Amino acid sequence: MRHPCASVAVPSYAPSVPIYQPYTRRDLGRIQQLRRLPAAARQEMEVVARVLPFRASNFVIEELIDWRKAPDDPYFRLMFPVRDMLRPAHYERMAAALKRGSSVEVDAVAKAIRSELNPHPAGQLERNVPVLKDSPLPGMQHKYPETVLFFPTQGQTCHAYCSFCFRWAQFIGDGNLRIAAREGAILADYLRVHPEVSDVLFTGGDPLVMKTQTLATYIDRLLAADIDHLSSIRIGTKALTFWPHRFLTDPDADDLLRLFERVVKAGKHLAFMAHFNHPRAVSHPMVQRAIARIRETGAEIRTQSPLLAHINDDPGIWSEMWREQVKSGCIPYYMFVVRDTGAQHYFGVPLSRAHEIFQGAYQQVSGLARTVRGPSLSTAQGKLQVMGVNEIEGERVFTLQFIQARQPEWVLQPFFARYDPEARWLDELRPAFGEERFFFDQP
Ligand SMILES: *Cc1c(COP(=O)(O)O)cnc(C)c1O
Ligand code: SF4
Q1: Of the bound ligands, which one is closest to the alpha carbon of residue 122?
Q2: Cβ within 8 Å of residue 320, ≥6 positions away
Q3: In what order do the strands lie in the sheet with 395-405?
Q4: Residue 47 lies in a domain
Q5: Scanning 79, 86, 106, 389, which has its CA 20 to 30 A from the CA of 213?
Q6: Is 253 a member of any domain?
Q7: Beta carbon of 143 within 6 Å of any ligand 1 atom
Q8: pTM of the model
Q9: Cβ of residue 205 lying under 6 Å from some atom of ligand 2
Q10: Ligand 2: which residue has its CA nearest to atom 1?
């Protein structure tokens, strides 16, 4: 079936046109479905939501969460704050402040706790900011030679907020912590003098919360600049699962797909980097229709997902998710380990277990899904992959390698760390064989 005003084929679609409706902390009291939960759980939610950002879309609440299983449902855990997402001392501090009832105190306590949650892991603010004609370009990051990250100002929020999010600090309205570009013109100027860059990644937040017209201003300018060495434009987004109507029925959905087509027609690759958490979202009929429409434009969808305790820490979930993705024509790309920020203590999975889950899932899928890499840790030095656990000269070790690195020559150089069944991040790992430092930490 063809939509009368679309330039791409539209699979037949339900007649009702849903309107995007975000729910934030102040709306917690009017989400009907929450009334199923015990009063104490709802009260705890109010306490946690004072510290960690909360936002859910009507699609997630009505379609993705299985309320019969809440609070254990994976999409419930992904969206809604629960008590254990704060450490007990932080929780008690906020609960006590709320009880005393001074909003000035509540705000001060929230701020103090957040600052103890490592709001900017891997030095996102100070490092990797590119410079053009001696001026720093604050809305961009250039860490790996081939890829520049661009944070359009209007895309620094999301349709819904993941409770594990490593960009959470951007959503709490702390002006100092936001990273965003005000100007799109400088991007093309920067690329012109950086022939090593083949990819620009639009990210956020979520660039697809922007109106198509706004996103098009950035992208059309890039296309018009006609930069030969720019081969791929990537868009990192969760709109596919948090608001698939962005590609179906939103007033500018068709314009968005036409923008994707323009990128492809200009001879560039449009890489749609879709964030998934669970197979349930991949197989949802609206997500399926959205995937079909995006792929019709000539864009390719690659998928990336964080490994999360309470949500997807099971090899069967991952193999099913990758199979469903391949079946829909999506390309599995990364499995990430959650960063050392925010509620990591709640969602984090030990590296030893992360490897077991990755291996267990990878062993169950066809080669078409083995494009995926992981488990990967995005550290200040690069993307580290846990390759496995070995026994070498009587010592149990993790074998690791960089799949992306600040120094290209570090990539695919296996190295070893002392095995530690509880370690969750690079800073908890020690070099194996009694060595002082890892090779990349040499002074
Ligand atoms: C992951 C990442 C990229 C892209 O790396 P690819 O391996 O090309 O997907 C670029 N910049 C930063 C900062 C990243 O974390
Ligand atoms: S979609 Fe991405 S940036 Fe947005 S809240 Fe989730 S993890 Fe964070």
Answers
A1: 1
A2: 279
A3: 140-144, 147-150, 199-202, 232-237, 269-275, 300-307, 331-337, 373-378, 382-392, 395-405, 415-418
A4: yes
A5: 79
A6: no
A7: yes
A8: 0.92
A9: yes
A10: 238
Nearest Cα residue to atom 8 of ligand 2? 165
Give the amino acid at 152. Answer: P
Determine whether 163 is exposed, middle or buried from the number of CB atoms within 10 Å of its CB (0-12, 13-18, 19+).
buried
Q: What is the pLDDT of residues 66-80, one digit of tens each?
A: 999 999 999 999 999
Rounded CA gap, 123 and 14, in Å?
A: 45
Please count the structural domains in the chain: 1
Per-residue pLDDT of 362-403, as tens digits, reads 999 999 999 999 999 999 999 999 999 999 999 999 999 999
Please name the residue that has the structure tokens 């081939």: 146
Alpha helices in 226-252 (DSSP H): 239-242
**Which residue is closest in CA terms to ligand 1's atom 7?**
404
Region of 112 (left: φ > 0; alpha: ψ -120 to 50; beta: rest) is alpha
Bond from prior residue into 205 cis (ω within 30 degrees of 0): yes
Range of the domain at 111: 22-115
pLDDT of 181:
60
- Mean per-residue pLDDT, 278-291: 97
178 close to ligand 1 (CB < 6 Angstrom): no
Q: How many angstroms is it from 124 CA to the middle of ligand 1?
A: 13
Task: Pick the ligand that lies closest to the CA of residue 121.
Answer: 1
Q: Whose CA is nearest to atom 10 of ligand 1?
A: 147
Contacts of 421 (CB under 8 A, 6+ apart): 350, 352
Q: Is 378 in the pocket of ligand 1 (CB under 6 A)?
A: yes
Using the atom order of ligand 2, give the atom closest to the CA of residue 168: 8
Contact 55, 163 (CB under 8 A): no
Residue 48 lies in a domain: yes
Ligand nearest to the CA of 124: 1
For residues 337 and 351, the answer to whether their CB atoms sit within 8 Å is: yes
Residue 40 lies in a domain: yes
Residue closest via CA to ligand 2's atom 7 equals 165
Which residue among 57, 59, 161, 203 has the greatest number of ligand 2 atoms within 8 angstroms of its CB, and so is best to mutate? Answer: 161
pLDDT tens profile 116-164: 988 877 665 567 889 998 888 878 999 999 999 999 888 889 999 998 8
Tallying the residues shown for the chain, one arrives at 443
Distance in angstroms (rounded) separating the CA atoms of residues 175 and 180: 10
